């Protein structure tokens, strides 16, 4: 019998259907033969050959006679799930010139039809088994591999065996017919189109410069229009035959099944896989090569200026070395840890300089082994102005200092403390490592040709090399990171007159003086030295919340807390603070300060602590400070641990009780907003990011993305004027879920949130604000973008509602929108060759009594916008006029049931369900019907919802098309001219 975490053991007492099902594997009558290829005893598992890294004994490794390798592991997180990964050692770098895009096209074809699956049966088949397409069932193609992924919930013996069977047919015998290729190529081209635009052009040009002379420069996984359109069944079959071979395949499986049972399934379905002919060696990926005239001391090679009018300035240069496969030994990993610490020191210095008002918005260094093509150290930064030379000099000066003189021991100790807490936390949380992540870890290790290590091993290696973290050793590794065979650079700018390739190369070759001004001075800060929030408060009431073992605690000042101390997630504490009025609290003129608040409110500090001091005081601690603005509430949130919980509570309470108003974070946020604004116009997706919320809220100024003039007009003084009263306003609710000491936490709450001054009430008119929905219009709203001429986006939306009273109905709406989504994906793939981009979502605000919407969205060709409107209209009306079929409903409700089942094993799930209940106890009562609301319905109920929400009024329509084009028809044949502007733009 599986031993579930306590949270799951209690679930059957709450919900009408229990998630915790018995482990029936031991009861299976038709056992497979035992796995014969498991490597145990004295045999070194295949992934550890040549390595002295201690083996993670929870994995079973096997290597079959046909060359296929596998790794299996029993893991019960979440319960009753099995995660399968099948990695083929072939990606875009394995393609010949005429095959560009074939690895990715083959991934699509594998899902389309195969030995055991007819056309378009893969998605509905796994939906019936409870898997959601896109998250549970997916695949990826990279330059070096193709990986097929399945996270199978409700993993009964029958379902797991059937999944292995289906996957074996997909990998070994996909149906690569001319008809399937003709049907799938337009979908791949649609995906390529959706990825296009300024950002993609920059990525491609940057790749061509940085990896010049290597296969990586020209072989993107998406391929080219020419090669994809020329694809034939024999050519794609030849690619499959050449690379889809057992010796090129690794299968990793982690799940709530005995590892030997999983190994037996791998061997049963893949053990007889044979492919004729000898294996084809992987092509030479090539090395970065310096120009013949390069200075060995400063080998600057290719440099390019990339001009994109709608993108902000940014620069990247890379110090490149040839990639070589390594022996993954402990000594090698010790070197990686020293490399990591060296980079962390430089990055902290670069960030400190940016915070203080430097010439760049951000800067970062990062070593990366890229696609087995280069071992490179990348430097990237964003100049604040057109003076890129000054920004480059500032960044290079910080790096020059790092390679010329050793860091201080205090800097080293600071980064060691960060590594220590990260590695120790991984050990503490080993019991809740998700099977999907474990299965992925094998894939990642194989891709980079390294072994896999348990968290205890990583911590052991780190602790065993502490005496190696000396200033001289760190300096040596820093110098190695910035030594290489070639240096290449790209500068992205909206103005081509600012720079040339020659000027960029000259600037990179110019000697730079070391700048030690960004070195961080040693100054210890302790929470013990900080002033109290106020006089510790008193507990006025405690009692059960009425759910599981969750407790409600009230303080005399009005603060209320919800606590659940449990052992479901060892070493983790989830913390959330809800306060104030959210979007309701702003006026339409506050738009600039809303966005700036999301970026700068936390950084503006607390008490005597600025952002630098906040970083220092939390060093070596597991702490966070996320801030979000909701429809009716503001939230602080963090993932912490019991040892740091009291201080984490202090930080959050101090932000409310003694906020600081430093100007620099606001000034920096203004710069970031200005740089980002123009890029919105570069693609349909960018325009939607800028304007969709504003339009769907009936052009409410609070949801308007501020333009550069509005950003420029914002000031630090204005920022404080808007935010200071909001931090003092509205009730406070603190939620603490996880492994912590209940009594100690209540005492910490007394000293922090219980010590706050009484809160100001939210004004009645503010509390009553409900977001509006736009009135029905005769034709679509049409916006334009400055991106590629073959890109567009279309949106249809219908108003729903919000609030707690009809929360159960909102859950049924999730079923309806999933039905809508499945139909829209099928319709757009058939009508317009669209990829999987069409999506339908339901938004139902819980903290305000209204403002919800059902939204359907797709990115497509401009000429297909009318087809989208027609398809969405037809689906909405059909859902209202005709009941859905039972099988169609099951394909939605079963994945929802399994999604809730898995999510409910974590504390954040329960926190989300009960948050706000101290002020509205109905939320707790409604949890009892949660599972049935999401998974039990009828065709008649869905039809009634569709009539109420989809057929009661015409949907709001929005089209985003390229500048200079016209939308000839929209939906029901109504003409609409392009270029209609938003009010005030």
From TrEMBL:
The keyword Hydrolase applies. The keyword Protease applies. GO terms for biological process: proteolysis. InterPro entries: Metalloenz_LuxS/M16, Pept_M16_N, Peptidase_M16, Peptidase_M16_C. Keywords: Hydrolase, Metalloprotease, Protease, Signal, Zinc. Residues 1-26 form the signal peptide. Gene3D superfamilies: Metalloenzyme, LuxS/M16 peptidase-like. It holds the Pfam family Peptidase_M16_C. Residues 79-194 form the Peptidase M16 N-terminal domain. One of its GO terms (molecular function) is metallopeptidase activity. Residues 232-418, 727-892 form the Peptidase M16 C-terminal domain. Belongs to the peptidase M16 family. This is Insulinase family protein. The lineage of its organism: Bacteria, Pseudomonadati, Pseudomonadota, Alphaproteobacteria, Sphingomonadales.
């Amino acid at each position: 019998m599986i031993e579930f975490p306590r949270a799951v053991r209690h679930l059957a007492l709450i919900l009408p259907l229990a998630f915790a099902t018995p482990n029936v594997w031991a009861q299976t009558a038709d056992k497979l033969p035992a796995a014969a290829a498991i490597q145990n005893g004295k045999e070194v598992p295949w992934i550890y050959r040549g390595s002295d890294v201690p083996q993670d004994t929870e994995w079973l490794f096997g290597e079959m006679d046909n060359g296929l390798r596998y790794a299996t592991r029993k893991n019960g997180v979440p319960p009753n799930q099995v995660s399968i990964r099948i990695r083929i050692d072939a990606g875009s770098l394995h393609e010949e010139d005429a095959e560009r895009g074939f690895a990715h096209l083959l991934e699509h074809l594998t899902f389309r039809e195969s030995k055991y699956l007819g056309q378009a049966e893969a998605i509905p088949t796994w939906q019936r088994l409870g898997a959601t397409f896109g998250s549970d069932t997916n695949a990826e193609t990279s330059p070096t591999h193709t990986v097929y992924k399945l996270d199978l919930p409700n993993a009964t013996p029958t379902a797991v065996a059937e999944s292995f069977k289906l996957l074996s047919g997909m990998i070994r015998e996909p149906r690569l017919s001319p008809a399937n290729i003709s049907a799938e190529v337009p979908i791949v081209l649609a995906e390529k189109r959706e990825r296009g635009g300024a950002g993609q052009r920059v990525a491609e040009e940057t790749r061509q410069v940085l990896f010049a002379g290597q296969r990586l420069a020209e072989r993107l996984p998406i391929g080219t229009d020419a090669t994809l359109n020329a694809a034939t069944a024999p050519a794609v079959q030849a690619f499959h035959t050449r690379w889809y071979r057992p010796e090129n395949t690794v299968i990793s499986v982690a799940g709530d099944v005995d590892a030997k049972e999983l190994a037996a399934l791998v061997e049963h379905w893949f053990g007889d896989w044979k492919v004729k002919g000898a294996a084809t060696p992987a092509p030479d990926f090539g090395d970065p090569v310096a120009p013949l005239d390069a200075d060995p001391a400063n080998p600057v090679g290719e440099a390019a200026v990339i001009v994109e009018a709608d993108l902000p300035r940014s620069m990247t240069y890379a110090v490149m070395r040839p990639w070589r496969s390594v022996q993954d030994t402990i000594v090698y990993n010790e070197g990686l840890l020293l490399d990591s610490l060296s980079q962390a020191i430089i990055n902290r210095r670069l960030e400190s300089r940016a915070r203080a008002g430097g010439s760049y918005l951000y800067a970062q260094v990062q070593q990366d082994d890229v696609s087995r093509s280069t071992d490179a150290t990348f430097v990237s930064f964003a100049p604040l102005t057109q003076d890129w030379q000054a920004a480059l000099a500032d960044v290079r000066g910080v790096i020059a200092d790092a390679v010329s003189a050793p860091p201080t021991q205090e800097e080293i100790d600071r980064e060691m403390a960060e590594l220590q807490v990260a590695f120790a936390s991984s050990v503490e949380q080993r019991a809740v490592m998700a099977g999907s992540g474990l299965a992925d870890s094998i894939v990642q290790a194989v891709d980079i040709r390294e072994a896999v290590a348990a968290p205890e091993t990583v911590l052991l290696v780190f602790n065993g090399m502490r005496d190696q973290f000396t200033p001289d050793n760190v300096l040596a590794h820093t110098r190695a990171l910035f030594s290489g065979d070639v240096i290449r650079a790209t500068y992205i700018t909206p103005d081509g007159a600012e720079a040339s390739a020659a000027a960029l190369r000259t600037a990179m070759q110019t000697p730079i003086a070391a700048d030690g001004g960004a070195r961080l001075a040693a100054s210890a800060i302790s929470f013990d030295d900080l002033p109290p929030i106020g006089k510790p408060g008193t507990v006025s009431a405690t009692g059960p919340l009425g759910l599981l073992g969750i407790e409600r605690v009230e303080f005399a000042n009005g603060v209320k807390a919800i606590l659940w101390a449990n052992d479901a997630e060892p070493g983790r504490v989830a913390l959330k603070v809800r306060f104030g009025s959210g979007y309701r609290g702003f006026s339409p003129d506050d738009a600039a300060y809303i966005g700036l608040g999301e970026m700068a409110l936390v950084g503006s500090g607390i008490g005597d602590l600025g952002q630098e001091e906040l970083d220092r005081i939390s060093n070596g601690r597991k702490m966070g400070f996320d801030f979000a603005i909701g429809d009716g509430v503001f939230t602080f949130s963090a993932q912490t641990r019991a040892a740091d919980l009291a201080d984490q509570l202090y930080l959050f309470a101090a932000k409310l009780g003694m906020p600081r108003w430093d100007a620099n974070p606001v000034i920096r946020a203004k710069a970031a907003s200005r740089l980002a604004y123009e890029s919105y116009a570069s693609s349909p997706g960018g325009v939607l990011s800028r304007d969709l919320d504003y339009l769907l809220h009936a052009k409410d100024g609070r949801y308007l993305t501020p333009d550069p003039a509005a950003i420029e007009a914002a000031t630090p003084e204005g920022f404080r004027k808007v935010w200071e009263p909001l931090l003092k306003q509205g009730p406070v609710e603190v939620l603490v879920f996880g492994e912590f000491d209940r009594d100690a936490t209540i005492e910490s709450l007394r000293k922090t949130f219980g010590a706050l001054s009484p809160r100001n009430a939210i004004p009645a008119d503010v509390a009553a604000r409900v977001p509006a929905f736009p009135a029905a219009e005769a034709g679509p709203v049409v916006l334009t973008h400055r991106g590629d001429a073959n890109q567009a986006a279309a949106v249809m939306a219908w108003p729903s509602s919000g609030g707690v009273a009809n929360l159960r109905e909102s859950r049924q709406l999730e079923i309806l929108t999933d039905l809508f989504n499945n139909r829209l994906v099928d319709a757009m793939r058939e009508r317009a060759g669209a990829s999987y981009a069409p999506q339908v979502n339901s938004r139902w605000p819980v903290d305000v009594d209204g403002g919800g919407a059902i939204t359907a969205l797709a990115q497509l060709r401009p000429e297909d916008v009318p087809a989208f409107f027609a398809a969405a209209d037809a689906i909405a009306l059909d859902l209202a006029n005709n009941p859905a079929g039972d099988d169609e409903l099951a394909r939605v409700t079963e994945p929802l049931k399994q999604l809730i089942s898995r999510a409910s094993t974590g504390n954040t799930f329960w926190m989300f369900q009960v948050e706000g209940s101290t002020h509205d106890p109905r939320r707790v009562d409604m949890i009892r019907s949660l599972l049935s609301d999401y998974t039990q319905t009828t065709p008649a109920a869905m039809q009634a919802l569709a009539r109420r929400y989809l057929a009661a009024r015409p949907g709001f329509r929005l089209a985003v098309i390229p500048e200079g084009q016209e939308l000839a028809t929209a939906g029901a044949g109504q003409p609409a001219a392009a270029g209609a502007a938003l009010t005030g733009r």
